[in-house]
Amino acid sequence: MPALRIELGGRVQGVGFRPFVYRLARRHGVSGWVRNGLGTVEILAAADPAILDRFTAALLAEAPPTARPGLLGVTPVAEAVEPGFSIRDSAATEGARPAFPPDLAPCPDCLRELADRSDRRAGYPFINCTQCGPRYSLIRRLPYDRANTAMAGFPLCPACRAEYADPLNRRFHAEPVACPDCGPHCRFEAAGAPSAAGEAALAACLAALRRGLIVAVRGVGGYHLLCDAADQAAVAALRHRKSRPDKPFAVLFPDDARTLDSCVAADAAARAALRGPARPILLLPRRPGAPLAPAIAPGFGTIGAMLADSPLHHLLAEGFGAPLVATSANRSGEPMLTDPDAAAAALAGIADAFLHHDRPIERPVDDSVLRIIDGAPRILRAGRGLCPIERALPFRLAEPVLALGGHMKSTIALGFADRVVISPHLGDLDDPAALAGLARMAADLQSLYGIAPRRLLVDAHPGYASTRWARAEARARGLDIVPVWHHHAHASALAGEMAPGAAPLLVLTWDGVGLGPDGTLWGGEALLGRPGAWRRAARFRPFRLQGGDAASRAPWRSAAALCWAAGIDPPAGLLPEEGAALARAAWARELNCHRTGAAGRLFDAAAALLGLCRVASFEGQGPALLESLADTADDITGPAPGLPLADAADGVVEADWSAALPALLDASVPAARRAAAFHATMAATALAIAETVRRRHGVAAIGLAGGVFQNRNLVERLAPALRAAGFATLFGEAIACNDAGLSFGQIIEYGGRA
């Protein structure tokens, strides 16, 4: 009887793939076996040729919904195969291509059992199967077997072992499988109260939340802080204790369409994203009169909505029966808190109570954040449920590389052969704890994948913490350093995801700041070319800005600089009461000043000139408030004028921002209309730049990259206009357009140079 050896890679471990193969083989009458390799699945299949063809096709076409199989090889073999089909133990194969599954939200089958009081796992907060549950956060090493995970310390009871060993059971080799008799448990602790365990712990947690207390809850990838989302006093207390005056909090909703609809506007695409296995935070328009505390997102027109990502959170959300604030317990920009003792120490004075559990967290994973922009969900932050992101490269690397990304919204990426693996969100690297987290993630990726990079790719800005760390690491290990320009990495990230190997394209790289090859701070560029060969085709007219990178937290500086450069007196109240004259003199004398044409700074300036945000408490606050205000406006009538374009001395097309100032400063027009008009002007300017470059260079495709394009109002004005003008318009989905995409872009740019 003919026999084949079949090897599959991709996401095929931890997703019920071997029992799927077993059932498929029995259905088709195929003999042989299936086993896990090191990141692969290996199959020996014997049957008539026609049956083997159907079986092989079905391996891909009928795979479990959370699997992502790829066919690595099919080889005929002359081997005697015993009748019947079996599942063999894992084989530790050298040179394999591991693919780690992400952590997955509870599946419908597990949720049904969770609610069924007759089921032995009823109300058990760690229920899971091959289609759901923790994966990446608990893997220690390959192959993906229970002994190599955080569940190694929980021996299976007889009932769970029987399920684990039954190929027809959906918990066959579900490595995190557990029940109340043999698995992890919760523990509730609060000052002045006895601790509680099991179901009593959940009941005590819910009672604390109903009393308006703040509870730290240990989830899949770290701790969240929860409180009643309708309780203004509780939310205000959380803001005060966490020293987070303005940045919006996410809201955990029960799985109840009526409650969700009363708070946010969610169309079919939004509901699908919310309910997907990643269970991200999704930014959605807030409904007027939503029964949520005003302090959740002051001044913002969106709410970060999420559904439960774990059975524990599901039990809490359903038990509470109303929205809960659910924000990461760590300080902004720092790694997630994962250890109970460390969390208790760090959150003393912030959390009133704690809901711990005893399942180890091998690596911290923050919530993923998405937004529906131009009709599709776009990743703003990749974390739990999405990471690690693994992608094929459009080339083959001669040697492994590690890309360190940027300074804000940090991620790192490991490139080897024709693959790249992108880490979860690591935070902003201003804090030493975040930089230590980057170092741990770099070591972890190399260990998990068994890859030792020979080159480190870094942002060309010498002051970035990631660049400094990489240079020290390179000296210690004898590695090569390869600098990559910030905006070249942005453009290459977009090209690598959306147009690998395509003809030259034009990419608008609009963000807050990044060092350019000419020594100025870029951020409003139009780059023409392909990875490894970008050149600047257009920019905003540079202006002198005091404070450099630090100006992102002081939008008044950008606004004042534009006014001074245009010969206009800044409006009253824009500058701080103390030091206004000193700031003006320092700007005039070019003390601590840099030249920039960054679009992000223009949005900062507009927000400050409209009185929305003169000093920011978090990165991007001004532009986000400006967008929210623009969304409330009666839209401007007629086509918006773009900024004037002219050729600069170096031949680069230059947009003159000064033409936007009179409209921004016209106090006779409502602020919301001025905000909307500014968005329309920026969109019209982008379109005019694209059309000008097309006339000169014949480019047919345009991409949008950089954090400015997280702005839905801007993109949904610009993208339809570009398509109407005949451009193929590219906007990333799986790779964040902000600085989280830089590490991937650095590898694409490096490969393009080669």
Q: Which helices and strands, and how do they pair?
A:
Layout: E1 3-11, H1 17-28, E2 31-36, E3 41-46, H2 49-61, E4 68-77, E5 85-87, H3 108-115, H4 158-165, E6 186-190, E7 193-197, H5 199-210, E8 215-218, E9 223-228, H6 232-242, E10 250-252, H7 257-263, H8 268-275, E11 281-285, E12 302-306, H9 311-320, E13 324-328, H10 340-346, E14 353-357, E15 369-373, E16 376-381, E17 389-392, E18 401-403, E19 413-416, E20 419-422, H11 432-449, E21 455-459, H12 465-477, E22 480-484, H13 486-498, E23 505-515, E24 521-530, E25 533-540, E26 543-546, H14 555-565, H15 580-588, E27 593-596, H16 599-609, H17 621-631, E28 645-647, E29 653-655, H18 661-665, H19 671-697, E30 701-705, H20 712-724, E31 728-731, H21 742-753
Parallel strand pairs: 2-5, 8-14, 10-12, 11-15, 18-21, 21-22, 23-30, 25-29, 30-31
Antiparallel strand pairs: 1-3, 1-4, 2-3, 6-7, 6-14, 8-9, 9-13, 10-13, 11-12, 15-16, 17-20, 18-19, 19-20, 23-24, 24-25, 26-27, 28-29
Helix pairs in contact: 1-2, 5-9, 13-21, 14-16, 16-17, 17-19, 19-20
Q: Overview of this structure, please?
A:
With 754 residues, the protein is of the alpha/beta class. It has 5 domains: 3-87, Alpha-Beta Plaits (2-Layer Sandwich); 108-165, no CATH class; 186-369, DHBP synthase (Alpha-Beta Complex); 388-484, Nucleotidyltransferase, domain 5, CATH 3.30.420; 499-736, Nucleotidyltransferase, domain 5 (2-Layer Sandwich), CATH 3.30.420. The chain has 21 helices and 31 strands. The strands form 5 sheets. Strands 7-6-14-8-9-13-10-12-11-15-16 form an 11-stranded mixed beta sheet, with helices on both faces. Strands 28-29-25-24-23-30-31 form a 7-stranded mixed beta sheet, sandwiched between helices. A 6-stranded mixed beta sheet has the order 17-20-19-18-21-22, with helices on both faces. The longest helix is centred in the C-terminal third of the chain and has 27 residues, at 671-697. The mean pLDDT is 94.
